[in-house]
Amino acid sequence: MFEAAYLYYMEGLTQQAIGTKLGYTRWTIGRLIDEAREIGLVSITINHPRAQTHHIEQQIIGELGVQAIVVPGNNTDGVAAVARTAAKYLVGRTAVRSLGISWGRTMTALAGALNEGWTTGVVVYQTNGGPTHAGDNEVFSSVSAIAHKGKGTAHTLPAPALVGNPDLGPHLMAEQSVIRVLSGAHSADAIIYSPGTVTKDSVLVKSGFLTPQQIERTRAMGAVGDILSHFVDANGEPISAELERRTIALPLSRLATAKHKVAVAGEPAKAEVLVAGARAGLADVMIIDIPTAERVLALISKEK
Known about the structure:
The chain is α/β, with parallel strands linked by helices. Helix content is 46%, strand content 12%.
């Protein structure tokens, strides 16, 4: 057993070659190698950071049916950690020639994590309206900067995320300039976004679209977070037809049919909306940190 295990693991011989050398059949050698592992003669260690989180990823895949990439390590800044991993994910994907992108703190961190020349000739489309007041560079950072670093072009959305008059929203959504950008986002090779929370720290509150009192009312209406500025319930459904009319963004129905959707979050407070989005088919991949992943699994366990 020792000879078979040593030749197999240390010298890299095939089971057939070991059998010939020791005078046994390949099947006998295979049995000896298996038994060596079972009795502890051989132990296998995978020296890769992802080994720390692989079991968590498999649990999430089994529960939600989406690919999960859980960032290993005790990261003090979850947003920065998931942004770095999301950047590697984008670079590792082949043929990302077009990209739909939301805006916010996590996407700004993603823009910072991407290297100059991460790709060439990328076309980046903004997926939801953004801040219009001076001094807020979130949209520039997360849309234009990603395009610039990818030696490509950016198509920003010439509209706010939320309008005050619900009758105005449908008119803006019918504008050709808005239609072109959102159609480009829908047909892009990938859409990457970070969902928002229903708290006073939401970027929609920080950007002046909602007051702290209004965000609390959306929570009272059943919102667990926002996806591309659409406030959704635990099933990933919009909570209010009136709010939907005020929202200038890629519709959730079109997000669901996009080629590849990646949700990125490094904050446990976003666990509820991540689960909702996965269940509604609004994400194919989650890139999250360990605390967020543990919160996701805790929420699922609580429901059982």
